[in-house]
Amino acid sequence: MGLKIKPKRLRLSIRLTVVSVFVIATTLTAVIAISLQFYFSRTMAMDSALSRYQNAANSTGNFLKSIDASAFQATQMLANYPALTDVTGSPRAYCRSFPK
Which of 6, 24, 27, 8 lies closest to 16 in space, CA to CA? Predict the structure, then answer.
């Protein structure tokens, strides 16, 4: 009863080994390159968007400050010349309210 089965050794040819190493190295290099490209592109896009939003916020703030200054000057003028707010008076009353 002695049927003995010899275990087969797995034999790889040199050609298969070289091709396998080449495919693995190429795939690994491509994955690393694509990952780095994605990371740095994302970082650059985030920095650019942040810079644009900051510029927009600064210009909006400056615009609002100029509107506030104009409103303040108009209020001061109306406070100094109350005849300007009198709509029932004649046009000559407006002229008399300004100093010569």
Answer: 24
Give the separation between CA 72 and CA 48, rounded to whole angstroms. 36
23, 61, 74 from 35: Cα distances, Å: 18, 39, 59
pLDDT tens digits along 33-60: 999 999 999 999 999 999 999 999 999 9
Question: What is the Cα–Cα distance from 72 to 58, expressed in whole angstroms?
Answer: 21
Rounded Cα distance between 72 and 66, Å, is 10
pTM: 0.52
CB atoms within 10 A of CB 97: 14
